[in-house]
Amino acid sequence: MDDFFAARSQMALSLGFHIIFACIGMVMPFFMAVAHYKWLRTGNEVYRNLTKAWSKGVAIFFATGAVSGTVLSFELGLLWPVFMEHAGPIFGMPFSLEGTAFFIEAIALGFFLYGWNRFNAWFHWFTGVVVGISGLVSGILVVAANAWMNSPAGFDYVNGEYLNIDPIKAMFNDAWFSQALHMSIAAFVATGFAVAGIHALMMLKGKNVAFHAKAFRIAAAFGAVAAILQPISGDISAKDVARRQPAKLAAMEAHFHTEEKAPLIIGGIPDMQEKKVNYAIKIPGGLSFLAHGDFNAEVTGLDKIPEENQPPVAVTHYAFQIMVGLGVVMMIIALLYFLALWKKKQWLQKRWLLRLFVIATPMGFIAIEAGWTVTEVGRQPWIINGIMRTADAVTPMPGIVYSFYIFTAVYLSLSFIVAFLLYRQIRMVGKLYDHSSEPSKAI
Amino acid sequence: MLYVVIVFLWTAILLYLLLGGADFGAGIIEFFTSRKNRGRTRRTMYQAIGPVWEANHMWLIITIVILFVGFPSIYATMSVYLHIPLTAMLLGIIARGTAFVFRHYDAVKDDMQKLYNRIFIYSSVITPLFLGIIAASTVSRQIDLQAQDFLSAYVFSWLNGFSVAVGLFTVCICGFLAAVFIIGETDSEADRQFFTRKAKWMIISAVLCGVLVFTASYIENIPLVDWVFGKPAGILAITAASLSLPFLWYGLTHGKAIIIRLLAGFQVCMILFAATYRHFPNIVLLKHGGYLSLIEHQGQEKTIEALAWALLIGSIFILPALFYLLYSFEKKKPGEA
């Protein structure tokens, strides 16, 4: 492994690790706020205990997200100093605002976690809501900074110099809205399905069913609504990418040849030598329609992109397929769930519906990782699209491979410990949070 | 507007040293506590820092964001030449933050606690050690932009007697701040005496490490004495800090929690002032006489302006909330974590 690849891998690892904790940290507060609200309104203790149980999880995830985020703010410079030297003053605006949002989140979390029985009950509830809102704002700002790398704006690039910097224009670049929307909804889908899946599993096992059923309903509602909205935001993103980054779209779809009535390619194995995709399902005109809203439109293929500016096709294509595929599966589960809620109440008592949610537990997060792979790998070889190459941005320090190994070891052990802690939390629900001790009955 | 940004940068560093430092200090005190007293130390510390620890570490993020937005070439140079100590510090931050949360939120209290404790204690010492090393390296004139080999570019840039001495000094300061802070939080007379003893030990160690810093600077030809005492402002700051020391000792002996906190904060503020004012606006001194300056190496005007506004507007939101947080958890009421 050479140092450049090691630097890219370390960055990918750090982002991939952080994103999971960041999503949970920004979405769970909303679930808690609902449970907390129900406790304050109904006085049903199960809701209070549920809020407390979830807040323990959130404290663990938030802290892990906060430290891995701190690491990232340094890693940008440690791994990509040339990039930061030029990009920092241009796309730094969302980061400076994010500092505020994140600070408020940490303060509000202090109030929320340690504020039980200390403050007015509604003030305490409100601090929980502030954690969620400021977390969401943080997420949107950071994504806006990433969007700038895809869609650089707010400066003039003249003879290798970055002139006339306008940080506000840079923040509101062309890609910020579609990316931020897609990511925010994705966070709700992933966290909603993950949490609902875990509680569904506990219901199937017949443990503390009343407690887990309430938790399941809140998480599933958020996840299901978001899963149904996500395809709409995906469509906005696809049209946006087609317009701004034709090379990325071509890689996502393994679309080798520029053509009108371009087919939508589902699955398949891209053959780089022959420039074709084997074993794929092709929907005629599908890609033209999705990218440009017209079945006959011309879609730029990789043949129009100079070879040295092409992103890796196979990785981008597979990642895109995984993301879309999982998104569709979750959308179908969400539709079934709403059908059950409104028309087929008897389904809610069926084990198969819960089983579906259990199976879907990791899907949202796998889709998020795949989606970020599409965004980041699909932008290669650029770190600033069309302006600076990733290879030119990397640190001159040799031996990054070792740094990569160390961080891999650290993040792997942290993942194990967090999973272990979560397992223990869930196992202790009966003892700590659910005293109703109803006779355990499985659904 | 540049000066607004510089004031925020300096304040963020100071607050990180004070609040984040006290926070690291909690682990350092635990490190220097005998096994039988550790449980007690841990409980008192946790009650005091639990609600605020995460906010305390935000000052580091603010510092780093100001650097990379406003002074990108300074950030880039430090990132390249101080890569190794920065990575060590980051690993410390990861280990410490997660161990702290894991040990309090693990639903089952068993032998895993020993592991969390060990990680927390060691990383609490290592992180400020490297923070001090990084700070010292910016002025020790060992960063060599022309260096050809790995060792002189990436290792000797930070590994020298002076930097390590400043690192140790930082550890003592953090421990001292934590002990001083905790004295006001204790419930019993026995605890108060215990932490007072700790605070006194930490003062003595800090003074000894201070001597070590000056000795190392003398050996390595760093004109620290001239920086600190060369101008009236520096002499004044150090004199004020030294003169307040007996008052602090008195306050410690007689249990005046507020006075000793204020004095401790004042001393750290004076030390930071004396250490930085002489090179201002230079923030990084390089080998062969070069330097990186907050004025010459600032970002473009529009960036600085936007950054200043972001910081000003941000502080309208942050400061009242932060004060209310610190104030609320000062009033001791029964609560559950």
TrEMBL record, chain B:
The keyword Acetylation does not apply. Keywords: Cell membrane, Membrane, Transmembrane, Transmembrane helix. GO terms for cellular component: cytochrome complex; plasma membrane. This is Cytochrome D ubiquinol oxidase subunit II. It is a multi-pass membrane protein. Belongs to the cytochrome ubiquinol oxidase subunit 2 family. It is found in: Cell membrane. One of its GO terms (molecular function) is electron transfer activity. The chain crosses the membrane at residues 6-32, 53-74, 80-99, 119-139, 159-181, 201-219, 231-251, 258-277, 306-327. The keyword Transmembrane helix applies. Coiled coil: none annotated. It holds the Pfam family Cyt_bd_oxida_II.
